[in-house]
Amino acid sequence: MKILPMLSSSTPSGLPVLYSFRRCPYAIRARLAIKVSGVRVALREVVLRDKPAALLQASSKATVPVLQLPDGRVLEQSLDIMRWALEQHDPQGWLRLQEQEEVLALIDLNDGPFKQALDRYKYAPRHPERPASAWRDEAAELMLAPLNARLADRPFLLRDTPSLADMAIAPFIRQFAAVEPGWFESAPFESLRAWLNRIVSSELFDAVMTKFTPWQPGDTETTF
């Protein structure tokens, strides 16, 4: 967690300010946790090629999501934002202390080796040292196959209800599936597809994918 000098919330309501981008998987998982917690924030949709000065002032990282709290703290990492929201209120029990080691191992695999292979697969022309199919197969072996096996006898990754791991990882599997939808639908990952559909077809997921007009200074506050 990064703590900056006191910064004004600059919202009439004094709500925390969330800088977000609709399609970014890191921002999606942050919004999922915020929405399920019931905590209200002022959402500022960002155009990544034209980042607002207020975002750059709040975070030199200048990527989303960023959560600026009224007391001056700034959370720059999506998992920190998820935990912050769920520590306020966790009505569905996504956080369970006894699961944290397993949850962190799954998320570390997702955010590290899998995300690297996913980016090379999605943007294969930038990585011509291997064909796109090689990056795809590496990502599938690293993450998709193990998750599919884990889901063979349960609806979610750790139990019968969603956990932090499910909601932190699903946006990235969704991104992977969208690269070659036909391949993903025909791959031998039936349990994984059912899990992903269970999450992305939910009311919660639908609620966090609302399209917002990019924020500009002086705009009316968008409460999320």
Q: Biggest sheet, in brief?
A: 5 strands, mixed
Give the ordered list of helices and strands: EEHEHEEHHHHHHH
Could you say which overall geometry the principal axes of the C-alpha atoms support?
A: globular
Task: Detail the poorly predicted runs.
Answer: 1-9
What is the helix fraction of residues, given as a range?
40-55%
Strand content is 5-15%
Count of helical regions:
9
For the largest beta sheet, what order do the strands appear in spatially? Answer: 1-5-4-2-3
Number of strands: 5
The helix/strand class is alpha+beta
Instruction: Supply Rg.
Output: 18 Å
End-to-end Cα distance, whole Å, is 22 Å
Could you characterize what this model shows?
It contains nine helices and five strands. The chain is α+β, with helices and mostly antiparallel strands and 224 residues long. The chain has a five-stranded mixed sheet. Helix 1 (25-37) runs parallel beside helix 3 (78-88). The two termini are 22 Å apart. The relative contact order is 0.16.
Key structural traits:
single chain; about 220 residues; alpha+beta; five-stranded mixed β-sheet; 9 helices; 5 strands; disordered N terminus
SSE topology:
Elements lengths: L1 E2 L13 E4 L4 H13 L4 E4 L7 H6 L7 E3 L4 E3 L2 H11 L11 H23 L9 H19 L13 H16 L1 H6 L3 H11 L2 H6 L16
Parallel strand pairs: 2-3
Antiparallel strand pairs: 1-5, 2-4, 4-5
Helix pairs in contact: 1-3, 1-6, 4-5, 4-6, 5-8
